[in-house]
Amino acid sequence: MQLDITYRQIWKISAPIMLGSAAQNVIALSDAVLLYHLGEIEFGAIGFVGVFYITIAAIGYSFSRGGQIMIARRMGEKKPGSVGHVFHTMLLFEMALAVLMWAFMKFATPWFFQIFLDHSPAIYQKSLEYIHYRAYGIFFSYGGIALISLYSGIARPGIIFIDTVILAIVNLVLNYGLIFGKFGLPAMGIGGSGLASSIAEGVAFAVFVAYMVYDRQNRPLRIFTVPEPDWPLTRQQLNLSLPVVANAAVGQGSWVFFFGMVENLGPRALAVSNLARTVYLLLSIPMWGFSSGANTLVSNLIGQSRHREVLPAAWKIARFCWGISMIIAVPILLFPGKILYPLLGKSDMSLIGETQPVFYLLLLILSLATVGVVFMNTLAGTGATWFGLKLQAITVFIYLGYLFVITNFTTLGLLWVWAAEVLYWLVMIALVLYYLRTERWHAMNF
Fold first, then answer.
1. Whose C-alpha in 2, 70, 315, 334 is 20 to 30 A from the C-alpha of 45?
2. pTM score, two decimals?
3. If we measure between CA atoms, which residue out of 315, 438, 436 comes closest to residue 382?
4. Residues 401-413: pLDDT tens digits?
C-alpha cells in the first residue's frame, strides 16, 4: 500500500493510533482519578509509580518501532509478503524482553524506588504494593505492542481503537471494584488498581489476537507462516530500535527523575505535579497518535523514493496535531475547575486551584511538544535513529541539569521546575530541524 500525505490520510491513520498508542495513558489516567478519591498518599504514589510503569511500557513500544518502520517501508515498496517475517521477529523479541522486565519489576524495584523515595516511606510502600500486581501485565502489554505496530505499519489501525476502548472499560470497572471493594470484589486499595490494570491488558490482548485470526485482509502478509529465526533481520530491527528505546528510556525516565526532584519540595508539591501530569497525559493522546502516524507515513514515502516530500509532510502533520491538541487543551487548561470537577470533584478543590499556574504553562509546553514529538518520529521514520539518540542525550543532559539546579540551589518554586519542559522541547525541536534540513538521512537504507 502506497500512501499520500493528505489531511484525510493523516487523520485516517493517526486517529485510531491516537487512542491505541495511548493505552498506557488511559490506564494511568483512570488509576490516578480513582486513587485521587482514595487518599493523597495513594495519589502521590501513583504519580511516581505510574510514570515508572509507563517508562517500562515505553521501552517495549520503542523496540517495536523498528519493526513498524520496516513494515511500513515494505508496504511502500509493494512487498507485503515480507511483512509477516518482520512481525514474527519483532514479536519474539518483545516476549523475551517482557521476561526481563517482569524480573526487574519483581525483584529490583525495592532497591530502585528507595533511591527516589527515601524521604517518603508511605509513598514508597504504596508504590511497591502497586507494582507487585502491575508487573504481570507486562507480558500482555508487550504482546499487544507488537500487534499495534503491525497494524500501524500496514496503515490499517481501526482495530487499535476498538481494542483500546475495551481496555479502558475493563480497566475502569475492575479498578473501581478492586480499589473500593465494589461488585463483590475485595477492597485492595492501590494494589487492586495494579491488579485491575494487568487483567485489563490481558483481556485486550486476547481480543486483538482473536481479531487477527479472523482478519482475512492480512492473509497476503503471511502472518501465520512462522519462519525460522532470522538473526540478521533481528540485528537489523535492533539497529533501528535500540536508539529509539534509549530515547524512550531516557525521555520517560527523566519523568521519574522529575518526580524525584519534586518530592524534595514536599508531598503537596508532589500531589500538584501529579495532577498536572495526569492532565498532561490526557492532553498528550493526540500527539502520540500523530507521531506514530508520522512514523508510518514518512517510512512509506521513503519506500516510494519520495524523499523531498518528507519535511513538508512533517510540518503538515505537526500543524494538524497542534490544531487538534489545542481544541481539546484550551478549555481544560483555562477552566480546569469546571472541566475536571466531574472527575476530581471533592468539597476541597484547593488542589486544582494550586495547580492552575502550572496548567497555564502547560499550554506552552503542549504547543511545543506537539511539534517536537512529530519531528522526533519523522527522524525515526527516516531510519536515522542513532542520530536521534545523540540529540536526545544532549537535550536530556540540559533538561536534568536545569532541574537539579532549580530544585537544589534555588527557591523559585514548582512553576520554574515545570519550565524545564519548555527548555526540553525548544532544544529538541531546534536540533531535529537542523538535522532534517541537512538531508544526510537520504542515504539511510534497510
1. 334
2. 0.69
3. 436
4. 888 888 778 777 7
